[in-house]
Write a structure and sequence with these properties.
Elements lengths: L6 H9 L7 H11 L4 E5 L5 H16 L29 E4 L3 H14 L7 E4 L5 H9 L4 E4 L1 H9 L10 E5 L1 H6 L3 H10 L9 E6 L4 H10 L4 E5 L9 E7 L5 H11 L12 E5 L3 H13 L4 E4 L5 H12 L5 E4 L12 E6 L6 H8 L9 E7 L7 H10 L6 H17 L19 H7 L52
Parallel strand pairs: 1-6, 1-7, 2-4, 2-5, 3-4, 5-6, 8-13, 9-11, 9-12, 10-11, 12-13
Helix pairs in contact: 2-3, 3-4, 6-8, 14-15
Protein name: RNA helicase
InterPro entries: DEAD/DEAH_box_helicase_dom, Helicase_ATP-bd, Helicase_C-like, P-loop_NTPase, RNA-helicase_DEAD-box_CS, RNA_helicase_DEAD_Q_motif
Catalytic activity: ATP + H2O = ADP + phosphate + H(+)
Length: 494
């Protein structure tokens, strides 16, 4: 079955070069278009961002503005805001993101899918000039992408109200919790004037959903559908995984061998063959960048201590191929969609398998092929069993030494703690890849905790009605604007 989308959405999909939906888009979009809350787990690079942006924008285009538009006003005094006289915005859709880079990426995708419409996306994030971001908000905001900290700041400044939010998206929810954003998220969702459960549609997307995130969903989601596309927490079979034993003192020379084999020395403007190298520390990133630069390699780096301008410049230089090698800490690991990353190198392996999955997911995206090489030594023994499981799942060649080491580590775990040892990546219950409500039913839980089976929604199609001039403008009402705060400005900010 086909599910027709608004012709403007279809036009922008075609302009973006999309031919057919990915599996997560095929299954998630009908659920969202049918106004159900959703917790979606899918492999990195599977098209999760478009999976929630396209149906949200489609519904905004089709439905028009809410009927209960708040009374227009200008803030009157400094007691209401530190910036009296500025306009307050009432976005219809809010997307929360853990990092500045991911927020900017989602914003760019939103601009792409709202092209030639009056819907105006905005983005706010820490590390950038708040005054400039407020000026951008003054022009109108209908879909807002934000990091939690800066969003709270803008609410406190009186620049934003969440009372008209109809669509809430938590992207990379596990990462936001890991970064300590839970207090801000709870305030945004539960305390500020966000519409309650049942009055808004809430979506959670990530490549991994550990137990703490699934438990948090009980507070944020209403009668939701749990969607798992592929093996949750696993990697794409399009990524060839290589694990090599490299002693700590040999890492730099081995890295040079890999880069030389790829012909990257003195390479410039090589945007079709980008190499992303991960290290664990900020100092390590700076040191490795300096080393590679002295060796004559075009390299840049990115980590949390860099200013926003420096981070954006580094990403631009890497994306365009001016510096086809980038050294990064985990700040760049989550959610970033950088085309043409052919090789991911784990110079330093992370301490947990979920971070490993996100790192190597920067290559092999949306059906493309990629290579991930990881340097392994005695410091990484705790990762042996998880790596064996991942490599085996994707039916790839497993180094014999790694298999032997994993068995040794397994025996050590069993002998040291036989009762607690579960033998699975997420513990004996497998909680990270399944709906906790289903687990509750299997254990004899109450009906309230039972999983709700997804309805038989029709699949979406990207081949709906052809774009015909400005005909799509007829879907808008005359009062369909977004800047409620200024009587002289319509809802679109015009």
């Amino acid at each position: 079955l086909e599910m027709p989308l608004n012709e403007l959405v279809c036009f922008n999909i075609e302009m973006a070069g999309y031919k057919c939906p990915t599996p997560v888009q095929k299954h998630a979009m009908p659920i969202i278009l049918n106004k159900r809350d959703l917790m979606a787990c899918a492999q990195t690079g599977s098209g999760k961002t478009a999976a929630f942006l396209m149906p949200i924008l489609n519904q905004i285009f089709e439905e028009g503005p809410p009927k209960n538009i708040p009374v227009m006003f200008l803030q009157q005094s400094a007691s209401q805001t530190r910036y009296p006289g500025r306009m307050k915005q009432f976005p219809m859709a809010l997307v929360l993101s853990p990092t500045r880079e991911l927020a900017c990426q989602i914003y760019e995708e939103a601009c792409k899918f709202s092209y030639r419409s009056r819907v105006r996306p905005c983005v706010v994030y820490g590390g950038a000039d708040p005054v400039q971001q407020m000026k951008d908000l003054d022009r109108g905001c209908h879909l807002l992408v934000a990091t939690p900290g800066r969003l709270v700041d803008m609410i406190e400044r009186g620049k934003l109200s969440l009372e008209m939010v109809k669509y809430l998206v938590l992207d990379e929810a596990d990462r936001m919790l890991d970064m300590g954003f839970e207090p801000q998220i709870r305030r945004i969702v539960l305390e500020d004037n966000m519409p309650p459960l049942g009055k808004r549609q809430t979506l959670m997307f990530s490549a991994t959903f550990p137990k703490k995130v699934q438990e948090l969903a009980r507070n944020f989601l209403n009668n939701y559908i749990f969607l798992a596309v592929g093996r949750v927490g696993s990697t794409s079979e399009n990524i060839t995984q290589k694990v090599v034993w490299v002693d700590e003192h040999d890492k730099r020379s081995f890295l040079l061998d890999l880069l030389n084999a790829a012909g990257l020395k003195n390479a410039m403007n090589s945007r079709d063959s980008l190499t992303l190298t991960f290290v664990e520390t900020k100092k390590g990133a700076d040191a490795l960048e300096q080393f590679l630069s002295k060796e004559g390699y075009p390299v840049t780096s990115i980590h949390g201590d860099r200013s926003q301008k420096e981070r954006e410049e580094a990403l631009w230089s890497f994306r365009t191929g001016r510096t086809p090698i980038m050294v990064a800490t985990a700040v760049a690991a989550r959610g970033l969609d950088i085309p043409n990353v052919k090789h991911v190198i784990n110079f330093d392996l992370p301490s947990d398998v979920e971070e490993y999955v996100h790192r190597i997911g920067r290559t092999g995206r949306v059906g493309n092929l990629g290579l991930a090489t990881s340097f392994f030594n005695e410091k990484n023994r705790n990762m042996a069993m998880d790596l064996v499981e991942l490599i085996t799942e994707t039916r790839q060649e497993l180094p014999e030494w790694l298999s032997v080491l994993a068995k040794e580590v397994q025996l050590e775990h069993r002998s040291s703690n036989p009762r607690k040892y579960g033998g699975r990546r997420y513990g004996a219950g497998g909680f990270g890849s399944r709906d906790y409500r289903q687990i509750g039913r299997e254990r004899g839980g109450s009906n309230a905790n039972r999983s709700v089976p997804p309805p038989n929604f029709p699949s979406p199609t990207f081949a709906a009605a052809p774009y015909a001039g400005n005909h799509f403008m007829n879907t808008y009402r005359n009062n369909y604007g977004g800047n409620y705060a200024a009587p002289a400005t319509d809802w679109w900010g015009n």
